[in-house]
Amino acid sequence: MTTFADRPLEEQIAQWRAYVSRRQALSRPDVEELEGHLRDQLVALTDAGLAGDEAFLIAVKRMGSLDALSREFARAHSDRLWKQLVMAPGAADGPAQTGSAETLVVFLLAVAAACAIKVPALFGHQLSPDEEMPLFYARNASIFVFPLLAVYFVWKRGSGMVSGLWLALPFAAGAVFANVFPFRPAGDTEVLTVLHLPIALWLAVGFAYVRGRWFADGGRMNFVRFSGELAIYYVLIALGGFVSILFTFMMFRAIDMNPDWFVAGWLIPCGAVGALIIGSWLVEAKQSVIENMAPVLTRLFTPLFTVLLLAFLGTMAWTGSPINVEREVLIGFDLLLVLVAGLMLYATSARDPQAPPDFFDGLQLLLVASALVVDGVALAAIAARISEFGFTPNRVAALGENLILLVNLAWSAWLYARFLRHRGSFAALERWQVAYLPVYSVWAALVVVMFPPLFGYR
Amino acid sequence: MHMGKDLVAASATPLVLAILAEGDSYGYAIIKRVTELSGGHLQWTDGMLYPVLHRLERQGHVAAKWSASEQGRRRKYYRITREGRAQLVAQRQQWKAVDGTLRGIWMQGCTA
C-alpha cells in the first residue's frame, strides 16, 4: 500500500472507504479500485505542493457524487444485487480467503450432519421405505444437527473453546432426556418430546449465534430475524429437494430400478439435516444484502389475519353458536396464538423503533386484541368442560402453551396501546418481546424433562 | 468550454478503447491521458470512468487483471480485446460519419 506519512490523511481515506463500502452497488474490488484512484490522485496533488487535507478535498470532489456513481455502477452491474444472494462477497475476484474458508467449513459441517444421521443405522436403527420412520429419529432429529450448527456459529463468531464446551452441555442433556425414558410405544409423552426438544435446544443455538452475549447489542432480535429467514430458506430448499426426489423416482423407474431405499434411507434424512446447515450459511451470507423476507410476509399476512379473526368474532356474535369443543380444538387455538405471536415478533423485528406510530401499528394491535378475544372465548369453552376431559399430557402441555402465549400477547397489547397513545416507547415493546423468548424454550425443556415421568411415560 | 453530459457519455467508449489500443492502462492513467489529449476541454468526473470500464469489460471489449503496481499496491489493469478493437473500428466509422456531416453543414455556413 502507498501509505501516506500524513496520519490524518490516512484516517480520512479510511473514513471515505468505510462510507463508500456501504453502497450496495459497489463490491469490494470496486471500492479497492476507486481507493487506488483516490490515492494516485492524492500523490499527484501533494507532489504539486498541496497539503494533505486540501488534496483530499479536491480528490474526493473530482471523484464525483457518490449517489450518481453508485447509480452508474448499479446500471453496469444490474445482476449484482441478485448474485450476492448466493455468493460470498468478493468470491469472483479480490480478496476472498474468508469467503472460501467459510464455504469449506459449511460444506464439511453439512457432510458431518449427513454422516451423523447415518450413524444410528450402524446400531440397528434402520430407515427403510417399507416401515414407518422409527420415533428414535424424530426424537433425536435436533440432536443430530443443532450441535453442528452451533459449531458453525462458534467458528464464525470466533468464540473460544470454553464457551463452545459450555454450549455442548444443553445438547448433551437433550440427548440424555430424549433417550433414557422408557416411553410406551407411540405414547403421548414421546410425541411431546419430539415436538418440544427442538424448541428447547434452539435456545442453545441462539446462544451460539449471539456469541454467548445474550443481552448485548440487539443480538436476540438478530437471532429472531435469522430464525425467520432460515425457516423461509429451509422451505425453499425442501421444495427443491422434493423436485429432485420426483426426478429420482421418474428416471430410475424408467430403467426398472427402484430407488425407494436410497430416497428414504439416504436422500431425505441426509438432505434434511444438511439443508439446515446450508440454509443457515445462506442466511448469514446474504444478510443485509436485500430486505429480509420474513417482515415482508408479516406485512402481507397481518391485515389478512386481522380480517379473518374479526370476521370469525363477528359471525360468532351474530349467530350465537358456541365453539364446538372437540379434542383438537385447544391445539388449534394454540397454533393460532403462535401465528399471531410470530406475526407480532417479526413485525417488531422489522420496525424502526424510533419511528412514530403509524397505521400498521394500529392494525397490529387490532390483530393481537382480536386474537386475545378469540382465544379467551375458546378457553372459556374449554374450561367449562375441562373436568370431563381429565388431564392428559397433551392437554396439560397445550394448556401451558396457551397460557404462556396469552401472557405474552396480553402484555404486548398493553405496551402497544401505550405506544399508540404516545405514553410509552416502541423500544419497551421490543424489549418485552425479546425478553420473553427464553420462556418458550424453558417451558419446552420442562415438557421434555418433567412430563414423561410425571405422566408415567404413557 | 462546457460539454453536454450526453456527448461526454457517448464519447467515453471510443475514447477509452482508443487509449487502451495504445497500450494496457489503469483508471487513473486513462483519465490523465484523456485530459492530456483534450487539452483540458474534456473533463470527466473521475469516478464515472469506472462504470464505463466495467461495462466494456462485461461486453468483452476489454479484459481486466489485478496486478501489483510499482508501489506494491494491487491495481486493476485493463487491456483491449479483439472484440474491443473491432468495436473501436466500428465506432471510428460512426464518429467519422457524424464528423463529416457536421463539417459539411458548417463549411456551407462559412462559405455562404
Count of individual beta strands of chain A:
0
Distance between the termini of chain B: 27 Å
Strand content of chain B: 5-15%
The chain pair with the largest interface is:
A-B, 26 and 21 residues
Tell me the count of domains of chain A: 3
Task: Identify the CATH class of chain B.
Answer: Mainly Alpha
Q: Major beta sheet of chain A, specifics?
A: none
- Catalogue the unreliable spans of chain B: none
Number of helices of chain A: 17
So, the CATH homologous superfamily of chain B? Answer: Winged helix-like DNA-binding domain superfamily/Winged helix DNA-binding domain
The secondary-structure class of chain B comes to alpha+beta
Run of helices and strands of chain B = HEHHEEH
Q: Classify the secondary structure makeup of chain A into a structural class.
A: mainly alpha
What's this, in brief?
The complex is a heterodimer of chains A (about 450) and B (about 110). Chain A is mostly helical and about 450 residues long.
Describe this structure in words.
The complex is a heterodimer of chains A (458) and B (112). Chain A is mainly alpha-helical and 458 residues long. Chain A contains 17 helices and no strands. Chain A has three domains: 7-83; 100-286, no CATH class; 293-454, no CATH class. Chain A is globular and about 95 Å long. Chain B has a single domain (5-111), classed as Winged helix-like DNA-binding domain superfamily/Winged helix DNA-binding domain (Arc Repressor Mutant, subunit A, Orthogonal Bundle), CATH 1.10.10.10. Chain B has four helices and three strands; from the N terminus they run H-E-H-H-E-E-H. In chain B, strands 1-3-2 form a three-stranded antiparallel β-sheet. In chain B, helix 1 (5-22) crosses helix 4 (82-111). The mean pLDDT of chain B is 87. The chains are: A mainly alpha (458), B alpha+beta (112). Chain A binds chain B through residues 1-2, 29-30, 32-34, 36-37, 39-41, 62-66, 68-69, 72-73, 75-77, 93-94, and chain B through 26-28, 45-48, 50-52, 54-55, 58, 66, 69, 71-76.
